[in-house]
């Protein structure tokens, strides 16, 4: 099944390979369609909302979209994608994505929200610095320099900042303070989630691994035993060199970072 926001395409084949279903469904009819079907194997691409649609009452399996793409025959459309998914899910060498629990999904939501808040904090800080520079006020890099600018904004007796600009910048300062409080709250929740599991506590004993990385790994890897070795886990994250080898010539490039880049980007404890 090729999933989307509103329109879904179903492609089904029998054990002989004959096409028995080729149907387009609206979102509201998906949960009505599959309960009427006999128990079967359902293939899905691992993407947004894919874990929700695994609750179809069948043997649902998720596959990386990059592994499904080679099965697309010609032009890309919903019917061709559904056919490619149907073909890929039956391949004996296909690698499937492990199903995450609701708890693991909740932890990943926590990490994504924290990342969004941090980006917003950087955006607000740069905006305040840029507008203050227009007034000829430039502070050193870092939180101490930003604090100096915020102090100037809060000082109504400082004539270097026009009143209208001060009122507008005060709004940004208020948002920045609120986001800082929210980031501290998410940090506390990340620490709690990292210490709540035995795997998370063991990961934090590794030098350079803090609560953020430990919590993210516990949430992103449902079952570590699905990897045959630690090198396979490193390859899944993307911490392996890029290969362009042929014959007896091995050509290795830089680190690919083709896997879960969020997990490989965090390697230090929280401040």
From TrEMBL:
Residue span, Transposase IS110-like N-terminal domain:
2-134
One example of the protein's molecular function in GO is: DNA binding
| Domain Transposase IS116/IS110/IS902 C-terminal residues, every copy | 201-262
GO terms (BP aspect): DNA transposition
Spell out the NCBIfam families in the cross-references. Answer: transpos_IS110 (NF033542)
* UniProt protein name: Transposase
- Species annotation: Neomesorhizobium albiziae
Organism phylogeny: Bacteria, Pseudomonadati, Pseudomonadota, Alphaproteobacteria, Hyphomicrobiales
């Amino acid at each position: 099944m090729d999933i989307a926001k509103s329109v879904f395409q179903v492609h089904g084949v029998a054990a002989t390979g004959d096409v028995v279903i080729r149907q387009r469904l609206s979102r509201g009819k998906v949960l009505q369609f599959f309960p009427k079907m006999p128990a079967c194997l359902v293939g899905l691409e691992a993407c947004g909302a894919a874990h929700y649609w695994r609750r179809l009452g069948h043997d649902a399996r998720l596959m990386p979209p990059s592994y499904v793409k080679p099965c697309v025959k010609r032009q890309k459309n919903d019917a061709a994608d559904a056919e490619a998914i149907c073909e890929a899910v039956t391949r004996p060498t296909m690698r499937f994505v492990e199903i995450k629990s609701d708890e693991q999904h909740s932890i990943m939501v926590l990490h994504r929200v924290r990342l969004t808040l941090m980006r917003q904090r950087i955006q607000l800080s740069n905006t305040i610095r840029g507008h203050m520079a227009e007034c000829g006020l430039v502070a050193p890099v870092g939180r101490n320099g930003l604090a100096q600018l915020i102090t100037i904004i809060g000082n109504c007796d400082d004539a270097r900042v026009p009143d209208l600009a001060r009122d507008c910048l005060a709004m940004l300062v208020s948002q920045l303070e609120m986001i800082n409080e929210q980031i501290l709250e998410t940090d506390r929740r990340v620490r709690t989630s990292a210490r709540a599991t035995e795997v998370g506590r063991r990961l934090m004993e590794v030098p350079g691994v803090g609560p953020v990385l430990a919590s993210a790994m516990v949430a992103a890897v449902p079952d570590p035993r699905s990897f045959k070795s630690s090198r396979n886990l490193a390859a899944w994250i993307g911490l392996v060199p890029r290969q362009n080898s042929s014959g007896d010539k091995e050509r290795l490039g830089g680190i690919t970072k083709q896997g879960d880049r969020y997990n490989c980007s965090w390697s230090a404890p929280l401040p």
